């Protein structure tokens, strides 16, 4: 029943927003993100039982939306498509988590500190993969990414410092995020931590 009401609710978002998004309109992207984040985050939380993970999932979904923005004019119902992306991304996480839990159960003794130790190991492993991916970025893209995610500069500030356009900064960040995401997935990690995703994305 919750899904029915959600699908009915998201039909109210204007298809014109998706048409504008297909033309690289960032204001349209902002409006879509704000609308769907509010509507669909509770659904993701109810499925994965973790607000932090649900936020990572939504970040991943919006990155996919931005990367596929040019297709929005060819999709009959973009709002429904986005709902499916959320459902599929959540399902992929749940399946990956089940496989992960099974590996942990089979490879480690059941001691009181096992879960905490393994979580810390996993976080360090993920960070090492992110650092590895960043190290493989082209020099200019790496610099722009680090200025954004490590120094917290906005796109405008980066553009001014490097004497380039804001569009160039945006495109370089998009390419960097896509590369990091694919690198993590190739290593069996399915989500980029939210701290490096949409931070400063719309500044």
UniProtKB/TrEMBL annotation:
SUPFAM superfamilies: Sigma2 domain of RNA polymerase sigma factors, Sigma3 and sigma4 domains of RNA polymerase sigma factors. This is RNA polymerase sigma-70 factor. It comes from Chitinophaga defluvii. It holds the Pfam family Sigma70_r4_2. Keywords: Sigma factor, Transcription, Transcription regulation. Residues 129-178 form the RNA polymerase sigma factor 70 region 4 type domain. The keyword Transcription applies. Residues 43-97 form the RNA polymerase sigma-70 region domain. Coiled coil: none annotated. Belongs to the sigma-70 factor family. ECF subfamily.
